[in-house]
Design goal:
This protein is α/β, with parallel strands linked by helices and 149 residues long. The protein is 39% helix and 17% strand.
Length: 149
């Protein structure tokens, strides 16, 4: 049995505009029994405000990982990814693109913008839960993440 490296809850920022996908992700995290604080924003503008601790997000913690959808209103996930990876203070936060798009150009573009991984969302809840458990197992048990500040 792998012992998690974290003794504090993992801070996860999920950037997702679909209420259904948010709910499925939340349920999958509960099912995966991942000790976490899930913060959810609905578009790319809010994501950048959260990450830069602006306005209503001034007291929010720095996320340990970002789960980023690509197709978002106001500012899409590609733009968010580009801004995060261009920002000296934010670029070390791992970004997991979690999207419905299987388009090869989206995969190439995301990795070109320095996404840490690209995962296509399964439609089936059980498969989606397995994906979330895989994210948990890899990113929070195997990988050493920088201590956010």
């Amino acid at each position: 049995m792998t012992v998690p490296k974290y003794i504090r809850p993992i801070e996860i920022l999920m950037v997702e505009d679909s209420p259904t996908d948010r709910l499925i992700t939340e349920e999958a995290l509960i099912t995966a029994k991942l000790m976490n604080n899930l913060h959810v924003v609905e578009d790319g503008v809010e994501a950048m405000e959260f990450l830069r601790k602006e306005g209503k997000y001034a007291n929010k913690p720095r996320p340990d990982i970002i789960l980023l959808d690509l197709n978002l209103p106001r500012k899409d996930g590609r733009e968010v990814l580009a801004e995060v990876k261009a920002d000296e203070k934010l670029k070390i936060i791992p970004v997991v693109v979690l999207t419905t798009s299987q388009a090869e150009q989206d995969v190439i573009k995301a990795y070109g913008l320095h996404a840490n991984c690209y995962i296509t969302k399964p439609v089936d809840f059980e498969c989606f839960t397995q994906v979330v458990q895989s994210i948990q197992s890899f990113w929070f048990s195997v990988v050493t993440l920088p201590n956010g500040s």
